[in-house]
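It is worth pausing here to work through a concrete case rather than discussing structure prediction in the abstract. The textbook approach is simple: state the sequence, then state the predicted structure, then interpret. We follow exactly that order.
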Amino acid sequence: MNKAQMNKAIFDGIVGVCQTHAERLRWAMVQLAKKKPLTAKALQQLTDIELAVFDQFVVRFSKLQDAMGAKLLPAVIELTHEEGELTTFIDKLNRLEKIGALNSVEQWLKLREMRNQFAHDYPNDPEIQASLLNKAFDLAAQLLATLDQVIVFAAKYH
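Step two, the predicted structure:
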């Protein structure tokens, strides 16, 4: 296997991981759609199974955003052979936006902030939990659309 084939296999593996997270995130979104918009009261009345689906939603959103940021987006930079000094992540994001792989750096940073907010647990504040989950539903659709956009963009290069 030559270097180009090896790079393609690695890239395809990264895409596969992202698509698995995306499929499970979509499944959780479908299961939870009838609960939207979520209220503090509704959150307190969820069954154990519904709570498990919410957990799946949170975990898959977080894992997808993390996998894209840590692996997929840097792999796209490699794939496109972008030149120049791209030492910081924000430099890479700006370049990805410039070449059309991302719609907006600002949008990506909002997705990342949502993932970071999931790291904070608010077990005693169902109002905050409901607000975060409602916001996350809207952002999850953007995250999934961003994944699709990056995959379509990268297909031109490999």
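Step three, interpretation. The chain has a mean pLDDT of 91. The two ends are 15 Å apart (CA to CA).
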